[in-house]
Amino acid sequence: MADSFPLTWELDLLYPNPESSEFRRLIDGLRSTLQSLADESELPAVADSADVVMTWAEFLERYAEVQAEFASLNSFVGCHAAADAANKTFQRYEGELSAFGPLLAQIQTNVEFALQAATDQLLDAFIAAEPRLTENAFFLMTARGSAALRLPKEQELLAADLAVDGLHAWGRLYDRLSGELRVRVMERGELVEKSPGQVTLESSERSVRENNFFAANKAWATIAETCADSLNHIAGSRLSKYRRLGVDHLAVPLHLNRMTRETLDTMWRTIGERKSCLVDYLQKKVELLGVERLAWWDLQAPLATVSAVGESKLTYDAACGQTIDAFAEFSPKLGDFAQMAIENRWIEVEDRPGKRQGGFCTDVTTRGQSRIFMTFTGTVDGMSTLAHELGHAYHSYLLRDRPLLLRDYPMNLAETASTFAEAVLGENRLAASTSPHTRLQLLDQMLSDAVAFLMNIHARFLFDDALHSERAAGELPTERLSELMADSQRRAYLDVLSDDGWNPLFWVSKLHFYIADWPFYNFPYTFGYLLSLGTFSLARASDGFPAQFDEFLIATGCRSAESAVQNSFGYDLREPDFWNRSLDVVEARVSHFLELAKGV
């Protein structure tokens, strides 16, 4: 194991720097290739003909390669732009690559419409006629289903064209504004400016947490009006299309996540029936923190009773070491992967100004690698984020030898690998601890995650649902957006916080609401969290589980969410059984926490 792990990532080995002439030629070449492919994408309808079969097989091969190159270059530019948020060259390339969207949409639309009219029998025979079609059967079947959520072809192509300077431009505007935002906070008696991602609510001192919260919200308030415009127009653009398709605002996100409304409703209903146990945890935390009632800035606070355990700042080297060791104990393959990714500089964690907020893992498919972006601030939560993002990277790594068109997986299944990796780290730390105080702290962190996934994410879902419902009648002012957010938080958190302790401006600061490509960037997190807990509980009963879990992750590229789980683990997600199994884990952790807290 390395003595000191690198804090910054290696990007230059992937592609030439975006500020170089070589990169300019790459982008120009991609544009030319995409244009040629778009011109060739008027494919013949599916037919029992050798010529038609060969035309499709050759086209899909080229399409997969070009799509992979576009996605990889887009990820590469996104990495540079996240690490240097004010760089105008990187911002321009983000816009330029976004402008390739209509060409990609043209290709995808033509493929889907050419498949749309085929009967099941004809499509089955067509796919069986050529090995290159057979290996991509799931892609072809899914593409045919996607056509049902398309406007007539000419309208669809026009909508994709308009989205460059509409839907996607509003998302890029938010990225620019949030990336340039600075928060003025007091540090050692002086006012300093920090990026939003550098300002945390994890201090053991309540006054620091509260001041950071209000300082951050003061900064976010300065761009709230523009963010409201962005959010209104992102939602409005989607709703205009949904209205013409005759579908509600959940049809597309459910399709993108390859899951049914029945599964989503069952998940939320089961959560609603059982998450009151988290209120017991939060009420006990009130006592341990010595406050009258919790506020938003207390939710991530370390427990005062165990402050001696958590006061020292966690080094990045220690965080990497603990993560690698925990992964290796579960699966040597996972541990080796984590060490390789960290040592080979796949990860950017340096705590410095000028970076965008948040964290992500992005694939560079053409290179068989991923890159992880985050800001490590010396906290245990940061170590959990590291494990989370490494879980994403491992998922992609397992799919690296699959056909290019079968390496894509929906967000809800993507979040399973990442939250499973967090669970592996958390359970490992809990099992290794002999101190009741340390165990209490670890359980607090685990239950804080449960609050995030079962309450915070639920609040985001409720807000998104209300936003899209009301936006159908017209634009919402900032005041109304804040009202919806506060109401959603009260409902999702079972009104457990103090009257003045909510965060009505959360809709401004949470970048997930502004991701143009993924509507409802929320419920997949809860889905993945519970799926990871349920599967983790299965792992305890099976020595061969790591290999079984790897096979499940590979299946996410070629099955629906329900099918992948049913085939791998034997559970029907439309029924409450699996979700209850997952929530049993949460409830057991609450009981363990309350028992340990008696001795404090």
**Extended strand count:** 5
Classified in CATH, the superfamily of the domain at 21-165 is Oligopeptidase f, N-terminal domain
**What is Rg?**
24 Å
Give the neighbour order of strands across the main sheet: 3-5-4
Give a description of the structure.
- There is one protein chain.
- The strands form 2 sheets. This protein has a 3-stranded mixed β-sheet, sandwiched between helices. The chain has a two-stranded antiparallel ribbon with strand order 1-2.
- It contains 26 helices and 5 strands.
- The chain is globular, with a radius of gyration of 24 Å.
- The chain has 600 residues and is mainly alpha-helical.
- The longest helix has 36 residues.
- The protein has a domain of 145 residues: Up-down Bundle (Butyryl-CoA Dehydrogenase, subunit A, domain 3), CATH 1.20.140.70.
- Helix content is 64%, strand content 4%.
Please provide a brief summary of the model.
This protein is mainly alpha-helical and 600 residues long. 64% of the residues lie in helices and 4% in strands. The strands form two sheets. It has a three-stranded mixed β-sheet, with helices on both faces.
